[in-house]
Design brief:
The protein has about 400 residues and is α+β, with helices and mostly antiparallel strands. It has a single domain, classed as Cytochrome P450 (Cytochrome p450, Orthogonal Bundle). It is built from 14 helices and twelve strands. The strands form four sheets. It has a five-stranded mixed β-sheet. Strand 10 and strand 11 form a beta hairpin. It is globular, with a radius of gyration of 22 Å. Belongs to the cytochrome P450 family.
Length: about 400
């Protein structure tokens, strides 16, 4: 029989949020000014300090308790534990374009809602739209042109074709989506008159689908409860993300012409999305207290994950800042490549984005870079500063 020890049981010490590393705050406003003006250097410095301390979490002072994690373990927990990490209090709530639909639906309603909406965005249905998408491809201009501006126009046409068979008023579609790329906080400003015009156009086109049928995305979404909201929100979520990924991919193909072949384009797109994930930062709110690596995170904390930081972590990727499509000959580190999120809440438009971008790249002639600024510029999405001037090779 073992003797009973009278020594006290030592329990791991649970520390408070204030013990986490953080980037240098500014007097008076903490990190708010840097978050608004230069968020990438801010979070890169926070990640550097966290790594130096052997952790994967750092603190931000944004007017409420906030933490940013970047390890595969953090990403897996945040994206997989839907009871603890809730979407209803995330950044999407404050952007009218994204505040609704399945994006903000939490468990237990998220799964059933997702099953209802999924079929329209599945590979099988989208494959039926491939011919229509190809017919809507924007011609490549002669002479020099800005790949960023060209991608903007091209994606507008492609989304119009996929969602509405090209029947949505192009001018209204452009006016609706343009504010999303304005500097923050302008995308959060309500635009009731503009939204009313867009909703009226959606109702008009939906009525046609309901009475005459159709095979575009609206035809599958219109009959669903809340289907027009899902259409509007997913359209807004798709435009800038797809535009920026396409523009960067075009630039990379001009700079690295050896990769400009349809067989290489999937790897080029994956590497582009690794380096420059349009959804560079995701957010949730804690529905209950959580202890993470000895730190107590209280209920209500803003919990952030960063596909940008995870995909550039030198502990996970060799030469993480280099453009190397050849790295995709092997699977990526688990839960480190998340341009479309992950788990049950993986982006609804994943297959649509791949279809549109790969079709556009396949139609491009050989290109040569002229001049450009591909430096990432974060806003609601991560885009290139631009312009990205290219021309057809040989001109």
């Amino acid at each position: 029989m073992r003797p009973v020890s009278n020594l006290p049981v030592l329990r791991p010490e649970v520390r408070g949020l204030e013990t986490l590393p953080e980037p240098p705050p500014r007097p008076g406003d903490g990190h708010l000014r840097d978050w608004a003006l230069a968020p990438l250097p801010l979070v890169e410095e926070g990640a550097r300090r966290a790594r130096e301390g052997g952790g994967d979490l750092f603190r931000l002072r944004l007017g409420l308790p906030a933490v940013v994690g970047f390890s595969p373990a953090w990403n897996r927990r945040l994206l997989g534990d839907l009871q603890t990490f809730r979407s209803a209090g995330s950044f999407s709530r404050v952007v009218p374009y994204l505040s609704g639909g399945v994006i903000l639906t939490d468990a237990p309603d998220h799964g059933p809602r997702r099953q209802v909406v999924n079929p329209g965005f599945g590979r099988r249905h989208l494959e039926g739209l491939r011919v229509r998408v190809r017919a809507a491809l924007l011609p490549v201009p002669a002479g020099e042109f800005d790949a960023l501006a060209w991608a903007d126009r091209a994606v507008l046409r492609l989304l119009n074709a996929a969602y509405f068979g090209g029947e949505f008023d192009p001018g209204l579609l452009h006016a609706f989506l343009a504010p999303l790329r304005l500097p923050f906080p302008l995308p959060t400003v309500p635009r009731p008159l503009l939204f009313a015009r867009v909703n009226a156009e959606l109702r008009r086109l939906a009525h046609q689908r309901l009475t005459r049928g159709g095979d575009d995305l609206l035809a599958l979404l219109a009959p669903l409860p809340g289907g027009l909201e899902e259409t509007r929100v997913s359209l807004a979520a798709a435009h800038d993300t797809t535009t920026h990924a396409l523009a960067w991919a075009v630039w990379h193909l001009a700079v690295h012409p050896d990769w400009h072949a349809p067989g290489h384009h999937p790897a080029v797109l994956k590497e582009t999305l690794r380096l420059f994930p349009p959804g560079w930062m995701g957010s949730r709110r804690l529905a209950r207290d959580l202890t993470w690596e000895g730190v107590r995170l209280p209920r209500g904390t803003l919990a952030l994950y960063s596909p940008y930081l995870s995909a550039r972590d030198p502990g996970l990727w060799q030469s993480p800042d280099a453009f190397r499509p050849c790295r995709w000959q092997a699977p990526p580190p688990a839960w480190a490549y998340l341009p479309f999120g992950g788990g049950e809440r993986v982006c609804l438009g994943l297959h649509l984005a791949h279809l549109l971008i790969l079709e556009a790249l396949a139609a491009l002639p050989p290109l040569t870079p002229v001049r450009g600024d591909p430096t990432p510029r974060p806003g609601v999405t991560l885009g290139p500063t631009g312009p990205l001037i290219v021309r057809r090779s040989g001109e």
